[in-house]
Design goal:
The longest helix has 11 residues. The strands form 6 sheets. Strands 6, 7, 8, 9, 10 and 11 form a 6-stranded antiparallel sheet that branches. Strands 12, 13, 14, 15 and 16 form a 5-stranded antiparallel sheet that branches. This protein has a 4-stranded antiparallel sheet with strand order 1-27-26-25, with no helix packed on it. It is mainly beta. β17 and β18 form a beta hairpin. The protein contains 4 helices and 27 strands.
């Protein structure tokens, strides 16, 4: 199996303190119309501007940029609210795009909220996931709160009401997998207190360190309801991981349905130690990507285990973003993410970036492993090859990856150029 990889500088950073990220997607279920999003940022997990433009010829030429920041950002009193639409998947059976979005409320503004979360382990911002449906070729979206427990809906006039704020909290999973019959499956990182409560467990016995800001796993099955224009949902039994194995619980999970029908979920954990979060994890605990699977249609999942190659070798990976891709050329499933050595700790290192085929059991096929990019001479030790989006070219089947090389320049985290990689399997 041969994987060919090339790259190009897509756009240089505008200045020493700003990263300019790009993402692309197709607008329609068929055809070559693309939309490109541009976001500017100079601080962690926060965009200061957002723009979009369109191409009618598969990205060869582009129309003008338009400012769309207000579509996803709102200030309500002293609070800030962001909407994230998530990665869209096309449902051919129902002729629409489907994704998991998220609403994040920063109580008292994002700077204060992040400081209290990272510095005190206090839940000063709150996430809720949204089931999002966009009709083929349209801008309008149908969005519904994903409710895995009883709770109230969002009310812009009362954004701090407990029935919404404290119920159904969840961080979005990476993508939605659409099955042949038009049903969907996806995971969310659900409030770990709620997960324990659903299972009848005591949180103090499993994750006593910082349960107000960490997550467990719930996998969601959806069937489209044309009367409502959205999906009816069923929820798996939650899966949990101890803070002795992952000090940050379940982060950024993604699910994919294997040819056998097995549902594979992979997520990032963390071995970081933090006094602010009262972590219990022992020094020297290895850092992995974790996996679990279901053979009963997604109702129950195995206990999370360190993910490994098909020859049983367990690999190491920092707490970083990752993605599954089902190739439109050969229908094989590939995984893109960071694999490093045993020294991986917390969020680092986030290089090299690799691609590897997933076998029939849900393990990585070691002989297929290929390096997309790695740290090169002159790159900072804090280099991050982990902030990326994925698109498959409809004409060629080539996988395109857009990635901002955060930390590439010593002393300037956000002075980061955007690169495009072409991966041909």
């Amino acid at each position: 199996m041969t994987i060919n990889i090339s790259k190009e500088l897509y756009v240089a950073a505008p200045d020493k303190y700003t990263s300019e990220s790009r993402t692309q997607a197709y607008v329609n279920g068929t055809g070559l119309k693309r939309v490109e999003h541009k976001a500017l940022t100079g601080e962690s997990d926060w965009h200061t501007a957002g723009f979009e433009r369109y191409s009618l010829d598969n990205g060869k030429t582009w129309g003008p940029w338009r400012d769309v920041y207000k579509k996803t950002y709102e200030k309500i009193g002293e609070h800030e609210v962001n909407i994230y639409y998530g990665t869209e998947s096309y449902n051919q059976i129902h002729s629409h795009f489907v994704s998991v979005g998220m609403r994040r409320i920063f109580y008292g503004g994002h700077k204060k909220a992040y400081e209290e979360s990272w510095g005190k382990g206090k839940a000063s911002y709150v996430d809720h996931t949204l089931m999002v449906v966009r009709k083929d070729g349209k801008d309008e979206r149908s969005m519904e709160l994903i409710k895995y427990e009883d709770g109230e809906d969002f009310d812009a006039n009362e954004i701090d009401k407990a029935g919404y704020r404290d119920k159904n909290k969840a961080y979005l999973g990476n993508a939605v997998d659409v099955m042949e019959n038009g049903d969907i499956i996806f995971p969310v990182s659900a409030d770990i207190r709620a997960c324990a409560r659903i299972l009848g467990l005591e949180i103090k016995d499993l994750f006593p360190s910082c349960p107000d800001i960490m997550h467990g796993l719930i996998v969601v099955n959806g069937r489209f309801n044309p009367t409502r224009g959205n999906y009816d949902l069923k929820f798996s039994k939650p899966a949990l991981i101890s803070d002795l194995k992952s000090s940050r619980g379940v982060q950024e999970p993604e699910a994919v349905v294997l040819p056998s029908g097995r549902i594979l979920v992979v997520f990032r954990g963390s071995n970081v130690q933090s006094e602010n979060w009262n972590t219990r994890i022992e020094p020297g605990t290895p850092s992995h990507k974790w996996y679990c699977y279901s053979d009963d249609g997604g109702m129950t999942f195995t206990d999370p285990m360190p993910w490994h190659f098909d020859d049983c070798e367990v690999f190491y990976s920092s707490s970083s973003y990752h993605r599954f891709v089902r190739s439109e050329k050969n229908q094989e499933i590939y995984w893109i993410g960071n694999i490093s050595d045993h020294t991986a700790y917390g969020n680092y290192p986030r290089h090299p970036l690799v691609i590897c085929r997933v076998d029939a059991r849900g393990l990585l096929e070691k002989k297929s492993l290929a390096i997309i990019d790695k740290r090169e001479e002159g790159d900072s030790e804090e280099l991050q090859l982990s902030n990326f989006c994925v698109l498959q070219d409809r004409q060629t089947g080539i996988i395109e990856i857009f990635l901002n090389k955060l930390g590439q320049r010593e002393g300037y985290t956000w002075w980061a150029d955007c690169y495009r990689y072409f991966v041909e399997v």
